[in-house]
Each structure stands twice: as C-alpha cells, then as structure tokens.
Design brief:
Helix content is 69%, strand content 0%. With 175 residues, it is mainly alpha-helical.
Length: 175
C-alpha cells in the first residue's frame, strides 16, 4: 500500500478525465480503441500517485488507483449522460430502441423487453442503469490495466547506482 494511503485524489483526477473524455460526443470515440480514455485515466491517476509518493509506486498501488479511477469515470460519464439526455431529445432514444427491437434474429423475449421499455415511459432510466452497470465493469477492468501500465511508466524512482569498482590488474605474462 502507498505510504500515505491517499489514493482518492489521484483517482479522482484520473476518473474525472476518463468520465469527461468518454462523454464528449466526438472525442469519446477514442474508447473504441481498446478503451483508450479509460486506460489513459488509469495511467494519469498512477502518475499523480507517483508525484505525491515519497517511494516507488508498486504494481498493486497502480492497479488499485487505476481501478478507483475507472469506477469514478463510469459514474462521471453516467451522470453527464443523465444531465444531458433531455438536450439530446428522447425521440432519438425511442428511434434507437425501435431499431434494436427490429433486429433480425432477436428472440421474442428480448423483443418484448424492448417494446416494454420503449412504451412504458421508464426506458430512459433502464437504459442509464444498463449503461452504468456495463460502464462500471468495463471501466474498472481497463482502468486497472491503465494503472498497471502507469506503474511501469512512473512507478520506480530513479536510483543512482554506485560506480563499478575498477578491475584488478592483469597478471604478468608467463615466460
């Protein structure tokens, strides 16, 4: 464990960066590249942890702060989606649900679920809940990976090794 035990501040910075970059409409497409913003948030959190730490940051420290960063990022993204959803217009969500309901090969049970969500009025909350759960799982996994990567990049403080001792003199030639 980190000597100070203060993972919250670095995790908050990494999580806010993750959540915001994963929410901005065009920039969020970066997450299509192996959850790039989530991994970057874990690396960023580990960087901030290494800056406040007196010693080296272990892989366990990096993984923990990356996990926390991913969880915070998932919450931030979901909250931002909840706040801006009325601006997007609910008709766009209904249209997407209709498209999902009409997918070929969709089992009848799933089709009934989509119909119920779309026409009972609670579909927005159900979608946000699904997004939150999926985000929590995915962001925690890739945030942890980002934290591990960050511990490799920033974890060890540079130590100067003492100079090597001089070689002993070569023995005189025989003969």
């Amino acid at each position: 464990m980190n000597q100070q035990g203060n993972y919250w501040k670095p995790a908050l910075f990494g999580g806010l960066a993750t959540g915001f970059l994963s929410w901005v409409p065009v920039i969020s497409a970066g997450n299509c590249l192996c959850c790039m913003w989530v991994i970057a948030g874990g690396v960023l959190a580990t960087y901030f942890l290494s800056q406040q730490s007196q010693g080296s940051v272990s892989a366990g420290d990096g993984a923990l702060v990356g996990l926390m960063s991913g969880l915070i990022g998932a919450l931030v993204t979901t909250i931002l989606n909840l706040v801006t959803l009325p601006l997007m217009g609910l008709s766009a969500l209904r249209k997407q649900l209709d498209q999902m309901r009409n997918l070929p090969g969709l089992p009848p049970e799933a089709r009934r679920v989509f119909e119920g969500i779309a026409f009972e009025g609670g579909f927005v909350l159900v979608i946000l809940l699904i997004v939150l759960v999926v985000s929590l799982v995915i962001f925690s996994i890739f945030g942890t990976l980002g934290g591990l990567l960050g511990s490799l990049l920033f974890g060890k403080k540079q130590q100067m090794l003492p100079p090597a001792p001089p070689l002993p003199p070569a023995p005189p030639p025989i003969g």
